Amino acid sequence: VTAEKAGFDHFMLKEIYEQPKAYRDTMMGRISADGRSVELKEIGMTPEQIRSIRNIQIVACGTAYHAGMVGKTIIESLARIPVEIDVASEYRYRSPIITPETLVIVVSQSGETADTLAALREAKRCGARVLAITNVVGSSVSREANDVIITQAGPEIAVASTKAYTSQLIAFMLYGLFLADTLATREKDWIADVLASMQKLPDQVEMILERAQVLKQVAESLAKHNNLFFIGRGVDFAVAQEGSLKLKEISYIHSEAYPAGELKHGTLALIEEGIPVVALITQEDLYEKTLSNIKEVKARGAHVLGLVNEGSEVEVDELFAIPCTLPLLSPALSVVPLQLLAYYASLARGNDVDKPRNLAKSVTVE
Ligand code: G6P
């Protein structure tokens, strides 16, 4: 078993460290030789069929759902197609409006999650075309979808998903750029610039991993608390949700992720002296707004860990900077310190990191 973990104490840590490779492998063979366009040979839709898409529905569970939240922002921003997102166990029961011009994107690491599979079948029954983003070749989801993008994360063993999530983000970026190119919603030069930034991500993740010890120390003090908050706006909120889920899954510390601007409408009542708040502030256009929310919690005594872009100064108790990238790509970096926080908090509490209580890697019952 030690050999399988390649010298790491846990599968989760090994998988966190495999992310640079997972990013490279997921991009490999999908970017043209001149670096100017995305080639998704696995997508069978004709340009005409793509132009006929009127709406997109993303359906997934757990961590894959959180990747879908970022995916919604990516697709709406790049392709200007309206995107709805649902957790799979809700989707079928809300009578979603599905037409032949609806594209349903199901996201699933395992490709076997019962609720996600049921949603896929329902979407197909209603005439939608289904695209699956999955990590497992030959999985049920991959066999039943019309089109499949395989994330090349490699096998993920730890129950808490890490490299599968980040590979899903890469897959959404590739697909978003592919749509933007086909629909001509973005200039070719712009697409080339984004692809160049994406190819820098693996090295930038390495730079974060090199500073893991800093996060270990922060996590050890977080582990003494029973409640904490994650806040952010835009894709930072989507990442906040994933960071919060990761922490809950393996450290059993209760946390809530909140859109930073929504705190004052209720949740601010829970902020008291010493409570840890992890604040994500990576989106330039939302910077001032989030900053004022950070001040709101600080004024009430919160102990704030700020996750910022390199070079940005925010007055908080602790600061962790991520390398600079494009706003839409920042989730692929900012989630990494949150994965490490969860890992080290779980370790500090003496939990079974790879096999948290009550949870299963793949849930094949509805
Ligand atoms: C389980 C796992 C989660 C995972 C979710 C969806 O609940 O514990 O980590 O995110 O299923 O799994 P999938 O394989 O569909 O991505």
Please provide a written account of the structure.
By secondary structure, the protein is of the alpha/beta class. The mean pLDDT is 97. The protein is built from 13 helices and ten strands. A five-stranded parallel sheet has the order 2-1-3-4-5, with helices on both faces. A five-stranded parallel sheet has the order 7-6-8-9-10, sandwiched between helices. α6 links the parallel β3 and β4. The structure holds 6-O-phosphono-alpha-D-glucopyranose (G6P). 6-O-phosphono-alpha-D-glucopyranose binds next to α4. It is found in: Cytoplasm.
- Number of DSSP helices? 13
The molecules bound to the chains, other than polymers, are: 6-O-phosphono-alpha-D-glucopyranose
User: Strand sequence of the main sheet, in spatial order?
Assistant: 2-1-3-4-5
In terms of per-residue confidence, which ranges show pLDDT below 50 for 5 or more consecutive residues? none
Secondary-structure-based class equals alpha/beta
- How is the main sheet built? 5 strands, parallel
The global form is globular
Task: Compute the CA-based radius of gyration.
Answer: 20 Å
Q: Which sequence of SSEs, written as H and E, runs from N to C?
A: HHHEHEHEHEHEHHHEHEEHEEH
Number of strand elements: 10
**Between the first and last Cα atoms, what is the distance in angstroms?**
32 Å
- Give the helix level as a range of percent: 40-55%
Kindly estimate the percentage of residues that lie in beta strands according to DSSP. Answer: 15-25%
Overall pLDDT: 97
